[in-house]
Amino acid sequence: MMARFSDFRLKGLVFLAIVVFALPMFISNPFHYGLATQTALVAAAVVGLNLLVGFAGQISLGHAGFFGLGAYFSAIMTSNYGWSAIPALVLGAVFVAIIAWIVGRPILRLKGHYLSMATLAVGFIIAIILNNEREITGGPDGMPVPSFDVFGWELSVFGQYSLFGMDISGDLAWYLFAGVVLLVAVWLAQNLIDSPIGRALRSVHGSEVAASVVGVNTAKYKSLVFVISAVYASVMGALYGHFQGFITPSVASFDFSILLITMVVLGGMGSTIGVIIGAVVLELLPQLLADFQEMEMVLFGLILMLTMIFMPKGLLPTAANLLAKRRAKSAGGDA
Question: Is residue 287 in a domain?
């Protein structure tokens, strides 16, 4: 059974890689490249959130706070102190991991709506701090973020680069970079899922009492996955800030937290490729509905509501179940 799931995940990763590297053949508009890059970075953050929600069964309604902390930490260190982006990103991830560990230990003892309220409060506190500390963060007006540099090589949407003898634009370079980051994020998540840690997380999701009885330290593993998901959010937040070139406290807002959790639920909790599909749908849907002007948000909400009514397990798991039923029906008919 485990071998079959591992094979399925490998196929999913290969399919995702094909899509990532084939997509530039179908787009050339800088706006579309920007949207694809943003989607890849947000999807990678959602992959981390899925480890917490989909595999460990722990809710987080303030996860955008960690995304915002990563973005602002890297922005402050590179803008105000002249740090390179990589050390700032890494130190920011360590800082967020420490915060998540300190916060996670007590709040993850809670369950149900009490846990939801606690994580929501964490997100609100972070957003308020980012809004009020004007001298450090720029307050509601936000702050500029320098280009992302790797050992002196700056990655900018306005640049022109050479890769294996081919000249590529800054938009394409950022997209390819974000695509590789997404693939690495998925690969790391899948390896974690297939490890003893992943099995412990699934046991916690199934029943904390049963997991404790067989010797699983539930508090330890819940705190660990909370930290891992926060680090995912922090790293993607830092990259998002460097890509955009400017950030505001909206990156840590309640609305963004709800968007992240909705991506997980819509795509299918516990499905790594599924949550990426959820991220793609929720990033693209507002663009497709933009022509409807005043009705945009009404239609957006209606589509989400109908999807969750008729596909409660999420897009990919529902589609996979339907396909399995058709195959079983066809096999039964042939027999």
Answer: yes
Q: Which residue range(s) make up the domain with 44?
A: 2-295
Global pTM reads 0.91
Residue with tokens 């916060």: 103
Spatial CA neighbour of 50 closest among 315, 280, 316, 268: 268
pLDDT digits (tens, 9 = 90+) for 2-35: 445 556 677 888 999 999 999 999 987 888 999 9
What's 44's DSSP letter? H
Alpha-carbon dihedral sign for residues 130, 143, 261, 226: negative
Q: In the structure encoding, which two tokens stand for residue 181, read together?
A: 């980051």
The whole-angstrom separation of Cα 6 and Cα 82 is 44
| 111-168: pLDDT as tens digits | 888 898 999 999 999 999 999 999 999 999 999 998 887 655 666 665 655 554 444 5
Give the pairing type, strands 143-144 and 148-150. Answer: unpaired
Structural domain total, the chain: 1
Contact between 321 and 268 under an 8 Å Cβ cutoff? The reply is: no
In a domain, 311, yes or no: no
Structural domain contains residue 112: yes
Q: Are 70 and 96 in contact (CB under 8 A)?
A: yes
Q: Residue 69 falls within a domain, yes or no?
A: yes
